[in-house]
Amino acid sequence: MKYKEFGKEYIDQIIEIYKENSWYAYLDDLTILEKSIDNSLYILGAFENDKLIGFIRCVGDGYHVVYIQDLIIRPGYYRRSIGKNLYQKTSCKFKYVRQFLLITDANDKVSNNFYRKMGMIEGNTEYPVRTYIRQ
């Protein structure tokens, strides 16, 4: 598996991955999706040859705050440490950023367990989402 930064040149494969994971909200307006990719702070992909297997996408200023917008893997590639590697490489790149965070669904046990294993701590909230902040 090769890890590299990329942009909208892989938009077709990004769309495939969102579809494969039923993340349809991103697909309502492909012009907006393309702009969101263009305006991202950082996108790191996991590639097998030239096939995008998964990626992490961050927004923020890169100095005070980095927000993980997406961490998504093709379903056939789960449990191969790809998500872990994407997270760790990104966390290392932004290790001096004070606010390194994300929001995930409160009822998604897999995601919640994953972020805890990555060393993130849960923020307190009464909403049906979970916020995690790097320790």
Give a structural overview:
With 135 residues, the chain is an alpha+beta fold. The chain has one domain (2-118): Gcn5-related N-acetyltransferase (GNAT) (Aminopeptidase). The protein is built from four helices and seven strands, in the order βααβββαβαββ. The chain has helices at 11-20, 30-38, 82-93, 109-117; strands at 2-5, 42-48, 51-60, 65-73, 99-105, 120-122, 129-134. A seven-stranded mixed β-sheet has the order 1-2-3-4-5-7-6. The mean pLDDT is 91. InterPro entries: Acyl_CoA_acyltransferase, GNAT_dom. Keywords: Transferase.
List the helices and strands and how they pair.
Layout (H helix, E strand, L loop, with lengths): L1 E4 L5 H10 L9 H9 L3 E7 L2 E10 L4 E9 L8 H12 L5 E7 L3 H9 L2 E3 L6 E6 L1
Parallel strand pairs: 4-5
Antiparallel strand pairs: 1-2, 2-3, 3-4, 5-7, 6-7
Overall CATH architecture: 3-Layer(aba) Sandwich
Cα-based radius of gyration, to the nearest Å: 14 Å
Q: What's the SSE pattern?
A: EHHEEEHEHEE
What would the average pLDDT be, to the nearest integer? Answer: 91
Helical amount among residues, as a percent range?
Answer: 25-40%
Largest sheet properties = 7 strands, mixed
Organism: Anaerococcus nagyae
GO molecular function: acyltransferase activity, transferring groups other than amino-acyl groups
Protein name: GNAT family N-acetyltransferase
Domain N-acetyltransferase: 1-135
